[in-house]
Each structure stands twice: as C-alpha cells, then as structure tokens.
Amino acid sequence: MEYKNGENRIFAVDETGKEVGEVTFSNAGDGMFIIDHTGVIDEARGQGIAQELVKHAVEKARKENKKILPLCPFAKSEFQKKTEYQEVEFKR
Known about the structure:
The chain is of the alpha+beta class. Helices cover 27% and strands 35% of the residues. It is globular and about 40 Å long.
C-alpha cells in the first residue's frame, strides 16, 4: 500500500494503482486543520488502511506544527484510542 498526499487529502493506492481510501481535511487557519472524512472502499476494508490514513494525517500535523480537529467519527475514535495523537489534537 502506498500513501500519497493530495490537495486537502491523503490517499491510499494499492499495488495495481487503484485508489482504495482517503482521509480528507480542510484548513482552519494557519495552525490547524479539520479531518472531515475517512473512507476505504469495501473490498479493502479490514486491512488497517483507515488507521494508517489517520496516522499519516497526524504525522503531517506534527511536521507542519499544526493541530487537528477530528470531526470525522472514525478519526475521532482513533484520537480517543491513541494517546500519542492527543498532542496534536485541538481541544475546544
């Protein structure tokens, strides 16, 4: 699986070049972005792709010194499970 950066998204591509999942986000000022969607196609589910997509978004936030507001239910659940993500989570 290869993970690529796109415009306001990070997406996963399988070995055939087919896009199988994405996490999308919108910028909310200079220091924050909002994860608004995480999705994986049905035939690629159960492989940990969605978790990897959120992980890549967290790595992007760390690299850019930004915070994330996880509005997508899946991303929000990942932030609750993984304490190491809480450093980049925007707290209201």
